[in-house]
Amino acid sequence: xxxxxxxxxxxxxxxxxxxxxxxxxxxxxxxxxxxxxxxxxxxxxxxxxxxxxxxxxxxxxxxxxxxxxxxxxxxxxxxxxxxxxxxxxxxxxxxxxxxxxxxxxxxxxxxxxxxxxxxxxxxxxxxxxxxxxxxxxxxxxxxxxxxxxxxxxxxxxxxxxxxxxxxxxxxxxxxxxxx
Amino acid sequence: xxxxxxxxxxxxxxxxxxxxxxxxxxxxxxxxxxxxxxxxxxxxxxxxxxxxxxxxxxxxxxxxxxxxxxxxxxxxxxxxxxxxxxxxxxxxxxxxxxxxxxxxxxxxxxxxxxxxxxxxxxxxxxxxxxxxxxxxxxxxxxxxxxxxxxxxxxxxxxxxxxxxxxxxxxxxxxxxxxx
Amino acid sequence: xxxxxxxxxxxxxxxxxxxxxxxxxxxxxxxxxxxxxxxxxxxxxxxxxxxxxxxxxxxxxxxxxxxxxxxxxxxxxxxxxxxxxxxxxxxxxxxxxxxxxxxxxxxxxxxxxxxxxxxxxxxxxxxxxxxxxxxxxxxxxxxxxxxxxxxxxxxxxxxxxxxxxxxxxxxxxxxxxxx
Amino acid sequence: xxxxxxxxxxxxxxxxxxxxxxxxxxxxxxxxxxxxxxxxxxxxxxxxxxxxxxxxxxxxxxxxxxxxxxxxxxxxxxxxxxxxxxxxxxxxxxxxxxxxxxxxxxxxxxxxxxxxxxxxxxxxxxxxxxxxxxxxxxxxxxxxxxxxxxxxxxxxxxxxxxxxxxxxxxxxxxxxxxx
DNA sequence: GATGAATGAGACTTCATTCAT
DNA sequence: TATGAATGAAGTCTCATTCAT
Lengths: 179, 179, 179, 179
Fold this sequence. Notes:
Chain A is an all-alpha fold. The first copy, chain A, has nine helices and no strands.
């Protein structure tokens, strides 16, 4: 059944976020999805395959904010990223990094899904700013994406959840380099 | 014996970096340290305690570069971070993030050890720049640390290892906002 | 359908020979036969019943060689047995012997099918020889069958595949006792 | 403990004979030996390794009979083989043959242990007979071993347990070819 | 008659942890 | 202090078998 498919993937993604790769046991996924373990194996050849598939269910940033101003767009994007992360936690990123030595496909899948969607969002924001003449011609979107998204990763890793003023402060600090 | 203590901690840190929390089995730590498993338990009450202790053995950034120029200092710091990360891998950061829901002490320990040492390094670099009149008075070191260190985390997570020109490009992009 | 019946039995016999009783999974039989698993169960109440039925599909020795000479007949028969065994392997005999403690029907079926057909072949060869006056009157075909067929079983079990001269050497060693 | 070692190997050999490779579960071996499953894995890296080790515990034919007469020696040897087989069953031979496609080491080990010990026994019997002038100079012990041992394998496989007169009849049938 | 989908039971294996010495 | 030996608990995966369609 289609609903079984969804239930399994959602249970897997949830457990992956909350209990890590190790904690995402097939038994727990099956129980959370309300099916038996072999039913999971009917769909995925191994736990590893299931985890890889679950990664792709993480949130995308498909519709970048469009406020008409570069700074505000970036603040909105960063705020959105922070809000998303506070909902589902950063541990999913931790999982894909932590498992890289043994399961590099997880990180690969994360890059293909989430990483590229973030980059695309920044790309679009900067494109629009450029067409409004708000930004330097040689500004590289990849660098901006690294700086904006990374700031949150570093802040969380080194200090914890940022306060509400933080996103604006980051983008303000960055602004002179963009325009 | 002191050398036994060291051997155990080093083996644990190494395995934690290279194989993650799950891969850091007590048997593997004991074997790598050349002792028996009960010897490990004489020192740490549990595997988890051992992992927490091992986290503190991660590299510090005790002597921030001092080139006489803010930009060059930051490039050197970032280059140093990248080099360190390429040696020991990012999976250790992944581990502390991934384990946070169940073992928040790992992340707490990481913040106390590595996070604060990075922040102190950036602090010092900016202090020196400020005393040379190279930077704004209201520049907050915490934001700069987020941006510089985070850029690498984001780049690695989204794209992989950066090329050799990358660190300079990041700092150049950032520079107008610092001075 | 008749062809379905055949396909299932052939797949079962093939898998039984090549992968043993354990390797003959119902899923593998169904896949090899191009049907679903329940289709197999429509025909056989259990995997075991299927195995028993598959045993009966093993090769018979219906037309014993007739060269006009006892020795040559036996050599031809033994050569034929060796050739057959090298094609389908001895593991099928292993299966019926190995399963005897728990599933004696397999061995019973093998005796009824293959064992009796070999005995009949030796019987006929010796009958013809006797009518030509080539053999002792009191020669018991059962003993000859044991010696000829068994020689191959023992050779394979103890040493492996015999070389090309072996069948003739065996029968030559045996000859003085037959005539 | 040494007694644990023995208990595990004996339990494994017993189960291998009586329930086949599949039936020799590690749980059953552990239970029969009175230990936990991990204790078994402390000694053997896998179930397969355990089975291979258990094969070597099968009976040898170290002291061939020495009656002073070739025929009687062979009858005694064959009678001994039959008696041994009736005690432990032929299913262990079935197991090594049945598992050959997936676990060829079992058959290899059987050949190295049991096969070679039988061959050595026949060798010695014939050597002694030759030194007494009771046999042909060119008689090949390997062929005799094949014929004598094989006769029992074939008889059992095709008909079942032989009656008490059978061993003598086999050797008598063979005798003219030996002397 | 045929099958897609499901599952209870059980197999092999690993691991953190303990205990007697 | 140190360890050889042991184990409860749990994890991944497979398989014979069933049921609704």
